[in-house]
Amino acid sequence: MSSPPNLLMMQTAPAGSAGGTASILMGIVPWLLIFVIFYLLMIRPQQRRVKDHQAAINAVKKGDQVITGGGIRGKVTKVSDDEVEVEIAQGVKINVIKSTLSTVLSPNTKPAND
Question: Where are the transmembrane segments (predicted)?
């Protein structure tokens, strides 16, 4: 009498393991979906902003208006590989490392309130 229940258990075991694989797969799919959404909405746009910022810093030239990370606004008077010389007032020039520039404005840009 104990023989038929053992046979039933043996026959249903492989079907149960296939269901277990599908169950694991269905548990992973939501996590993958969350990662894809996170990548598309957060990581990719941030990488694009960093790339655009690096391009703007590398393209800085004499005469551009810049704003440093500390909030100092001035006009670029000299550019070297790693530094720029910024005139912040008449006759007052400071050397600033390029990577600390937060914004590069073109010389033709007018303030919004004019």
Answer: 20-41
Q: Which of 49, 43, 42, 97 is nearest to 72 (CA)?
A: 97
pLDDT, tens digit (0-9, with 9 covering 90-100), for 89-105: 999 999 999 999 999 98
Q: Is the pTM of this model over 0.90?
A: no
Do residues 35 and 45 touch, judged by C-beta distance below 8 A? Answer: no
Bridge-based pairing state of the strands 73-79 and 83-89: antiparallel
CATH 3.30.70.890 fits 61-105, yes or no: no
What is the token pair recorded at 112?
Answer: 């919004």
Q: How is the chain split into domains, by residue range? A: 1-58, 61-105
Q: List the alpha helices (DSSP H) in the chain.
A: 3-38, 44-58
Q: Would you tell me how many other CB atoms lie within 10 Å of the CB of residue 96?
A: 20
User: In 10 A of CB 105, how many CB atoms?
Assistant: 15
